[in-house]
Amino acid sequence: MAALEDLFASGHRACAGCGCALTLKTLLRVTGPNVIIAQATGCMEVISTPYPESAWKVPWIHSLFENAAPVAAGIEAGLRATGRKNDTKVIAIGGDGATFDIGFGHLSGVMERGHDILYLCYDNEAYMNTGIQRSGSTPYDASTTTTPAGKLSFGNQRPKKNLPAIMAAHGVPYVAVTSIAYPADFTKKVRKALSIEGPKYIQVHATCTPGWGIDSAMSLEVLRLAVETAMYPLFEYENGQITSVHKIKDRKPVREYLEKQKRFAHLFKMPGGDKEIEKIQRIADLNAEHFGLDVKPKGKEAAAGKQ
Amino acid sequence: MAAKMKVIEGSMAVAEAVKACRPAVVSAYPITPQTHIVEDISQMIADGEMQNCEYVRTESEFGAASMIQGAEAAGARSFSATSSQGAVLMYEVLFSIAGMRLPCVIAMANRSVSSPLSIWNDHQDAISARDNGWIQLWAEDSQEAADMIIQAYRIGEDHRVLLPVMVNLDGFIITHTYEPVELYDQKMVDEFLPPYSPVYALDPKNPVTMGSLAQPEVYTEARYMIHQAQLKAKEVIEEVALEFKKKFGRYGGGLIDAYRMEDAEVALIAMGSIIGTMKDAVDEMRAEGMPVGVVKVRSYRPFPAEALRAALKDVKCACVIDRDISMGMEGALFTDLKAALYGKSKADILGFIAGMGGRDITIDDFKGMARKGFARIRGEKVTDMEWCKLDTDILPEGS
Ligand SMILES: Cc1ncc(C[n+]2csc(CCOP(=O)(O)OP(=O)(O)O)c2C)c(N)n1
Ligand code: SF4
Questions:
Q1: SS3 state at B182
Q2: Where is each Pyruvate:ferredoxin oxidoreductase core domain found (chain B) (predicted)?
C-alpha cells in the first residue's frame, strides 16, 4: 500500500510531543488536498510558516489572531460567488485563546450566519505562543504565567468556559469535542463534519508539552487520562442535541490526570491542595453525570443501585 | 451609448458605481453616515440587480474587513464601506489586507472619531489610518466619489500595484446630499474594468501559503515592497484617470487638481468636499483682484509630492486646511506638505485646523485664511498654525 503523503509536512518547528501539531497532520490526512485553511495567530501558525518555508501543502492563509472564522467565511463566500466552490472545504483553525476569547464574537457571528465552514479549535488550554498565559479555556486550578500558583493562590480560579454548549446554542448542525489521543474518534468527527453543509465546530484536546509541564513521550497518555477521568468528555451535538458521548468504563480519579502535569503540581504540595483536588473531582463527576459518561454496571449491583 | 444623468444621493451614487464594478463579495456593518451605501447595495441585490454577489451582514466592522480579506485572498473582487469608529475597529485588519497585497476597495464616509462622540464630518478616521499601506483617494463630490470607486479597482488590481484602496467621501456632505450624477453604462465599465485577475489566490489546485511569519531577515523587504508599490501607484493613478476620461468623458481622479492657480501667490490646499466652497471663496477674491488659487489633493497616499511641488512652484504662501489633528503636532496634510516642499520651495506654509466634528467652514473662513497668506507675504506677523473659529469662551480657564 502506498504511504499517504503528508499534507502537513514534517520539519515544522513544533516542540517534541506537541499534540497540536499532531492534530494538524491528522486533520489533513482526513481532508485530503481539496481544502483551504485560514488560521489564527498562535503556536501552530508560527511553527509552520517561517518564511520562506511552509509546512502546508494545501492553500493556507494566516491573517490575524481573532479573525480565522470570518476570513474563512470570506473565502467560502468568494469561492461561491465566483463559481469555484465545487467540493473545496474551507476550514478555520484557532487555538483556544483565539477561539474562546479574542475571536469569540467573530466566531459567533460566522456560526450564526450559516457559512459553510468547519471551525477547528485545538484546545491546549492556554495561550501557549506568548508563554502559557491563562485563557477562557484554562481549567480550574491550573498554574499559568498569569495565574501562577503562589502562597495565596492555587492558580486559575475560574472554571473552563463551556464553548461547545455555546456553539451548539447557535443552532449549528454539528458540534463535536474530541481528543487527538483518540485518532479514530477525531477522524470520524472531522469526516462527519465535512459531510455536513453549514457551520461546524470541532474542539480537540491537544497537549502542549511545556505548557502542561509533561514529558514529550507522555503526551498521548496524559490526553487519554483527561478522557478517562471525565475531565475532558468527548461528545457530539447535532442540531443542538447531544447525540453521542464517549462512555467511560471504570472512570479514574482526577488525581491520576493531575499528578502527571507540572501545571497542577502545586495541588500536591500546598496545604489545602487536597481540598482543591476534591473540587476538581466534583467538576469531573458533574461532567460524568451531565453527559452520562459512566458505563452502568450490569446485573444485581445495578438493581441495588450501587455504583 | 450615453450614460444617464440622475439626481441621487451621494451614497446611491457610490452604490451604483460599486454595482457597475461587479464585486463578488460585499460585507456590511451599519454606521452613520456610511449606512446608506450598504443599504442601497442590499436593495440592488434584493431586486436581482447584482447577480453573483455574496452580501454578508457581519457582526462588526472587524468581521466585515476580515470577510473581504478572505474573499479577496480567494480571488474574488470585494467591497465594504465604513466610517469613524468602524474604521478604527477595522484598523488591525486594514494593515493585514495591505500587507497581503489584496486589492480590496472600501468607501470611507469620513466622520470624526469618539470621544467626544460625534457623528459629523471631519477627516480624523482616514487620516488615523494613514500609514497602513492603503491607497487613499479623496472625493470632492458625489460624481467624483463614484468615479473613484471604479478607478479604485483598476488602480488597486493593477499588477504593478496590488494594494487596497480607500475612497474617502465626506460624511453627510456627500453621502446624504442629492446631486445630479452621471450613471454608468455597464458595457463601458466592463470594458474599462476587466474581471479580477489576482497574481496569487487560495486554490487547492495550486496551493500557496499567505501571511507567513517573517523573521527580521525578510520583514523590512516586505514593507519596502509595499512602499514601492505605493510609489508606483502614483503613475498608475494618473494613467487610470486619463483612461477614465477618455472612456467616460470626465476627469474624476488623478493625484491632484489645480483651480485658478495660473498666477496665484497664495494657494489654499485641502482634501474633500470643502474644495467646492474654497473655489467659491477664490472666485470672490479673484474678483477683488487677489491672486489666489486652490490645490485639491485627491491622492493622499501615495502622497503626490512631485505634483504638489510643481503646482506650488510660483506660490509665495501655501495655506493648508486640515480637518484632522495629529495630536501634539499639527494637521497631517500640513506636515506632509511641508515635508514635500522642504528645501525645494521658497513658499511659506501656514496650517489651519478647521471643520472638526462637523463645524461649518464658510466662504468667509477661507477668505480669512487666504488673507492671512497675503499678510504673511507682506511680512506681517501671522501664526504658523491656527485653530480656525476656536471658541475660547467654552474652554475651561487655563487651557
Ligand atoms: C490582537 C492580538 N493580541 C495579542 C496577540 C499576541 N498573541 C499572539 S499568539 C497569542 C496566543 C495564542 O494562543 P492560542 O490561541 O491559545 O494558541 P496557541 O498559542 O496556544 O497555539 C497571543 C496572545 C496578537 N497576535 N494579536
Ligand atoms: S509550545 Fe506547546 S503548542 Fe506550541 S509548539 Fe510547543 S508544544 Fe506545541
A1: strand
A2: 264-365
Q: Is the pLDDT of residue B348 over 90?
A: yes
DSSP line for B313-331: TT-SEEEEEESS--TTS--
What is the Cα–Cα distance from A15 to A209, expressed in whole angstroms?
7
Contact at 8 Å (CB) between A173 and A200?
yes
Cβ of B73 within 8 Å of Cβ of A105? The answer is: no
Number of domains in chain A: 1
Is ligand 1 within 6 A of the CB of residue A21?
no
Residue B392 falls inside a structural domain: no
Contacts of B365 (CB under 8 A, 6+ apart): B354, B388, B389
Q: Are residues B215 and B358 in the same domain?
A: no
Picking from A51, A58, A65, A91 by the largest number of B CB atoms within 10 A of its own CB, the best residue to mutate is: A51
In a domain, B399, yes or no: no
Q: What's the pLDDT tens digit per position in A22-31?
A: 999 999 999 9
Rounded distance, CA A171 to CA A199, Å? 9
Chains A and B: how many Cβ contacts under 8 Å?
A: 167
**Do B53 and B183 lie in a common domain?**
yes
Q: Do residue B74 and residue A54 have CB atoms under 8 angstroms apart?
A: no
Specify if B317 maps to a domain: yes
**Structural domain boundaries, residue B98:** 4-248
**B100 within some domain:** yes
Q: Are residues B124 and B142 in the same domain?
A: yes
Amino acid (1-letter code) at residue B232? K
State pLDDT tens for residues B186-201: 999 999 999 999 999 9
pLDDT in tens, B99-117: 999 999 999 999 999 999 9
Long-range (24+ apart) CB contacts under 8 A made by B202-206 are: B202/A36, B202/A59, B202/A60, B202/A61, B202/A75, B202/B73, B202/B74, B202/B75, B203/A36, B203/A59, B203/A84, B203/B74, B203/B75, B204/A33, B204/A34, B204/A35, B204/A36, B204/A58, B204/A59, B204/A88, B206/A59
pTM: 0.96
